[in-house]
Write a structure and sequence with these properties.
With about 475 residues, the chain is mainly β. Helix content is about 10%, strand content about 50%. The chain has seven helices and 20 strands. A 14-stranded antiparallel barrel has the order 2-3-4-6-7-9-10-14-15-16-17-18-19-20. The longest helix is centred in the first third of the chain and has 13 residues. The relative contact order is 0.20.
Length: about 475
């Protein structure tokens, strides 16, 4: 085990904030390290920073870049451009190769089975729940006034804090034939949350009466390759009505993971000075093996309408055995004032140690959907519910709806969607494609709360191509 102890010393008050390399580690989102910044005044009569003092563009740039580049999460598949364009409302529409990712029961419907090969599917969703591309453009490099800071803090939800999530997926050479499908995907997911107190501290510094709490912050990330086999079975048929069930069994090779397992920190500013303590513990690993099981059911109500439900990762486990480590960092400081600034006021300790193999599970997510599956105008509505907060899931429900119109040209489908809820922002989505004979190429993109690209709160694009048989 590697352990470091450090005492920090600063002579005199300099400017309106003090930043230490070790306290920065408290809140950074990598491998259990977190970043925090403390400010102090120039003298005893001005011992607490002024909230109206502008912040430089350098700090603004750092904050906003973090929002758009940090890794995130969505529970749905990102490698289907058709699904992304329709807001993720795809539980009752997916057929063929895509059924194994959204609802394997759809493979069991007689008369509408679709065989084909997906050559490649690529998708990336990197987003946050507070700031838009317009905010990024407006405030990067700018000097923030007190009203600017108030606006930015007002964009962050009080309960959830600043959430940064990412979901990246790539699939290649996936096949469907009759009631069976085989798929191979590489998936990277992460979910990082910073309490609103932390962002307030970064923007405004510590002021009299402030209590900064980081306990509600967290970080969770995982990367893996999944090879799945899906099967759909019809169990009831009466005229045009059909009931089918399905299952997808996945073999998983874990590539890496990071999870904060314990985080606690508090800093208080009162009439006697500034005091606080905190610690963070995270686990990491770079290799493992496991499995996951998806189950689904679907009913074809008529030639036009289908309802379905799917539980993703109903059973799952990954046993992490390679390079398993625990990382820890703690700090403490007694009441810090102008009078004791010349002494050692912060004591910190960090360590990294090897640990035994351990297991984790992928979060279970349930989707329920209804869709119109015939005609020139298709539509679908989905409800999504995660059973725990993790990379790839949210305990808050998310509602999505999508349309596909082929009335202009069958070879040029036009798609649009809308989704709201969960740990992600409200968003509109759009897409199209080229369908020539058995060949297809689909693309999709997502904006934010309006149709304008500037409302986007991150980056979400997808492309998929292949052949139908």
């Amino acid at each position: 085990m590697i352990r470091h102890k450090t005492k920090h010393n600063v002579s005199g008050c300099r400017n309106t904030r003090m930043t230490t390399q070790h306290s920065n580690k408290m809140l950074s989102s990598s491998a259990g390290q977190r970043e925090t910044t403390y400010r102090h005044a120039q003298d005893s009569s001005n011992c607490f920073s002024n909230r109206t003092k502008p912040i430089t563009g350098i700090l603004t740039f750092s904050i906003l870049v973090l929002l758009f580049i940090s890794a995130t999460v969505s529970a749905g598949s990102q490698s289907s451009a058709r699904s992304v364009a329709m807001g993720g409302a795809y539980t009752s529409l997916a057929t063929g190769v895509e059924a194994c990712r959204y609802n394997p029961a759809n493979l069991g419907f007689e008369g509408i089975k679709q065989s084909g090969i997906e050559i490649v599917g690529l998708g990336a969703d990197i987003s946050n729940n507070s700031f838009s591309l317009g905010d990024y453009n407006d405030y990067t490099g700018a000097v923030l006034t007190s009203s600017d800071k108030e606006y930015l803090l007002g964009r962050i939800p009080d309960d959830d804090g600043l959430n940064i999530s990412a979901d990246i997926e790539a699939s290649a050479i996936s096949l469907s034939f009759g009631s069976y499908a085989i798929s191979v995907s590489g998936i990277g997911q992460a979910d990082v949350s910073l309490s609103k107190d932390i962002v307030d501290l970064i923007l405004n510094g510590n002021t009299f009466g402030d209590t900064v709490n980081v306990t509600s912050s967290y970080s969770d990330a995982v990367g893996y390759v999944a090879a799945g086999v899906s099967y759909g079975l019809p169990i009831y048929t009466f005229g045009s009505r059909q009931l089918a069930v399905g299952v997808t069994a996945k073999y998983i090779r874990g590539l890496g993971m990071e999870k904060v397992v314990d985080l606690d920190g508090l800093a208080v500013t009162d009439e006697t000075g500034f005091a606080g303590e905190g610690h963070v513990i995270a686990k990491t690993a770079t290799g493992g093996l496991g499995y996951a099981l998806d189950v689904g059911a679907a009913m074809h109500l008529s030639d036009d309408y289908t309802v379905g439900a799917r539980i993703k990762n109903m059973l799952s486990t990954i046993s992490w055995t390679a390079d398993t480590k625990e990382h820890g960092y703690s700090f403490t400081f007694d009441t810090m004032t102008v009078d004791n600034m010349d002494g050692d006021y912060i004591s910190s300790e960090e360590y990294t140690k090897d640990i035994q193999s351990f297991s984790t599970s992928l979060p279970a997510v349930m989707n329920i959907g209804v869709a119109n599956t015939s005609g020139d105008l298709l539509w679908a509505v989905d409800w999504e519910q995660g059973f725990r907060q993790a990379a790839g899931a949210s305990k808050k429900p998310r509602l999505s709806a999508g349309l596909e119109w082929t009335g202009l040209l069958q070879m040029l489908p036009l798609r649009a969607g809308f989704a709201t809820g969960g740990n992600k922002t409200t968003a509109f989505s759009f897409g199209s494609g080229v369908h020539l004979g058995s060949f297809y190429l689909d693309i999709a993109t997502v904006t934010g709360k309006t149709l304008l690209p500037s409302s986007s709160q991150g980056l979400n694009v997808a492309l998929s191509t292949g052949f139908y048989f």
